[in-house]
Design the sequence.
């Protein structure tokens, strides 16, 4: 596969808007059912108390936000949440823990048990646990893990302005470990943290140029949380958000492109443009870790207006 250059990508991004989303839509229709969307729900199974200093995150003890620390949830609570997610139409259930890594063996074993139990419900499984080593990745694979979420967050140039307790190379190393274990990667980033348009494009170029592009690319619109270091940043323009979705689709034709956090701030029309431009995955739970998402029947009503169907769980390699 030929690598995409930044110059090529920024030229595409700057195309006239209708030409850009038209190109993205055509590529999307060639690779996916354009009237189908994949739905995920996410549950924080361990919350707060994180030693990392990610500028956007309320769970960091280094930020001014105050999120109550929650120990690991028990298996029954997680399974019941997964059953409810499936009842609401989700085909993938994601489990998240706070912190740089799960260093305690009992906690990691508990996650593996959760993965097995959720997989038994005929749901795709996803976890985000921070840094993992090869042995842990292999155990997750055996447990039935389908996706591992590990976002690159932003461009290599802007990264150090957002996080100082790890590097973007650390993130790429974990992605490689997970992929080497045969697990699909879910990796994207956050827009609206004060980065430039060029930073956003460079982030997508980085992902597209991985040895294997992510199977799922979540694009998060920053949710401003009082007390975090980016709570006063200028929000991304809605049409620029659509452009990022379109560019992600063009650069990674066979990846799911997901509208993740911040979707509840996007008008229906902008969400529809995102789907036309190639977004075919959504988080549909009312809560995304510590922030609000869409409510109740909102998605069902939108899908009805657009004639969109919800994708069923697939058999993954």
Sequence:
């Amino acid at each position: 596969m030929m690598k995409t250059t930044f110059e090529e990508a920024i030229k595409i991004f700057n195309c006239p808007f209708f030409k850009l989303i038209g190109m993205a839509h055509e590529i999307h229709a060639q690779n996916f059912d354009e009237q189908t969307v994949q739905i995920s729900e996410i549950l924080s199974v361990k919350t707060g108390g994180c030693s990392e200093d990610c500028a956007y995150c309320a769970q960091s003890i280094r930020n001014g936000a105050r999120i109550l620390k929650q120990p690991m949830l028990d298996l029954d609570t997680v399974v019941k949440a997964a059953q409810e997610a499936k009842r609401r139409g989700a085909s993938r259930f994601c489990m998240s823990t706070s912190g740089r890594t799960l260093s305690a063996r009992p906690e990691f074993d508990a996650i593996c048990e959760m993965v097995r139990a959720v997989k038994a419900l005929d749901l795709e499984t996803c976890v985000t646990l921070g840094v993992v080593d090869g042995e842990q990745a292999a155990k997750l694979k055996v447990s039935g893990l389908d996706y591992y979420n590990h976002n690159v967050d932003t461009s290599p140039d802007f990264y150090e302005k957002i996080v100082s307790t790890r590097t973007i190379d650390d993130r790429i190393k974990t992605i490689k470990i997970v992929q080497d274990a045969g697990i699909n990667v879910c990796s994207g980033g956050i827009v609206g943290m004060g980065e430039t348009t060029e930073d956003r494009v460079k982030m997508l170029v980085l992902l597209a140029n991985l040895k294997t592009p992510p199977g799922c690319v979540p694009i998060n619109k920053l949710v401003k949380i009082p007390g975090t270091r980016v709570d006063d940043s200028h929000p991304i323009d809605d049409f620029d958000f659509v452009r990022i979705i379109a560019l992600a689709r063009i650069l990674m034709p066979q990846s799911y492109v997901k509208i993740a956090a911040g979707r509840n701030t996007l008008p229906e029309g902008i969400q529809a443009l995102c789907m036309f431009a190639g977004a075919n995955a959504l988080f549909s739970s009312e809560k995304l870790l510590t922030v609000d998402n869409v409510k109740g029947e909102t998605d069902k009503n939108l899908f009805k207006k657009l004639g969109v169907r919800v994708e069923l769980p697939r058999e993954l390699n």
